[in-house]
Specification:
Blueprint: H1 7-11, H2 15-25, E1 29-32, H3 37-49, E2 55-58, H4 65-78, E3 82-85, H5 89-99, H6 108-127, E4 132-134, E5 151-153, E6 161-163, H7 171-181
Parallel strand pairs: 1-2, 1-4, 2-3, 4-6
Antiparallel strand pairs: 5-6
Helix pairs in contact: 2-3, 3-7, 5-6
The structure holds iron/sulfur cluster.
Iron/sulfur cluster binds near residues 104, 114, 197 and 201.
């Protein structure tokens, strides 16, 4: 389904308006949540618009325990179903048989292979049957995200529209909304994490470091993306 977003939606100034338009425009809309701070905001806003919001998350098999706790906490708080999507067990088995369980530390190529098997391919499978998806991307998060549109055709998933209601929001706006509404947040933020992904591939950051510096911290140069949102990573 194609839908033309009006200017006030494209600006993204009011994420609630973006979400309301998205729910009205796409009958098969799904929120893809990583359960970082942005997910908390989007799920909370969406729950005020619809009671039957669809949420899916990618369980790579390597997430920190705290992420599983947040998933269940959000499920309970909003009384919503959350589809937990796993990678194909055969693809994972083939990958680790030849390359080891911690292949990602050996080269950027192997790290990207792991992200592809554990994240990108499962997401592509999970999005089949949907016509649009919502992500928590913000332009401020990384150089690779500075041009993130609020609404656009998704080049990675042909036929789907990708919607980033918080694209124009700052980190401060996200946290102000969280505090104002007393939302559940991932406990690793309190331990100095500024971006949270798989346990072996994420560390806390220090003052002055980029928000995503703790992701794949051992890689020098290159792009701090897994391929879900940046096609050049493939
Ligand atoms: S973040 Fe690390 S463990 Fe997770 S899918 Fe990517 S390489 Fe694999």
């Amino acid at each position: 389904m194609n839908a033309i977003a009006p200017p006030e939606v494209m600006s993204g100034a009011e994420p609630e308006n973006v979400l309301r338009w998205a729910f009205d425009s796409f009958p098969r809309l799904v929120i893809v949540a990583s359960f970082q701070a942005e997910s908390s905001v989007i799920i909370d806003m969406a729950s005020h618009i619809r009671k039957d919001v669809q949420v899916l998350t990618l369980d790579t098999g390597r997430l920190p325990q705290e992420t599983y706790d947040v998933i269940d906490g959000v499920r309970d708080r909003y009384a919503i179903d959350i589809e937990v999507v796993s990678p194909d067990s055969g693809e994972v088995a083939d990958m680790v048989r030849g390359r080891g369980v911690n292949l990602f530390y050996r080269s950027q190529e192997e790290r990207r292979l792991c992200c592809d098997v554990r994240k990108s391919r499962p997401l592509a499978r999970a999005l089949r049957g949907h016509d649009a998806w919502i992500t928590g991307l913000r332009r401020e998060q990384a150089a690779t995200r500075t041009n993130t549109p609020v609404v656009a055709s998704d080049p990675e998933h042909v036929g789907l529209t990708k919607i980033a209601p918080l694209a124009s929001w700052s980190k401060d706006q996200v946290w102000a909304y969280i505090l104002e509404n007393d939302l559940p947040v991932h406990p690793l933020y309190e331990r100095g994490y500024t971006s949270i992904g798989c346990a072996p591939c994420t560390r806390a950051t220090t003052a002055g470091e980029d928000e995503r510096a703790g992701r794949w911290w051992w890689e020098q140069g290159g792009v701090k993306e897994c391929g879900l949102h940046w096609s050049g990573a493939k």
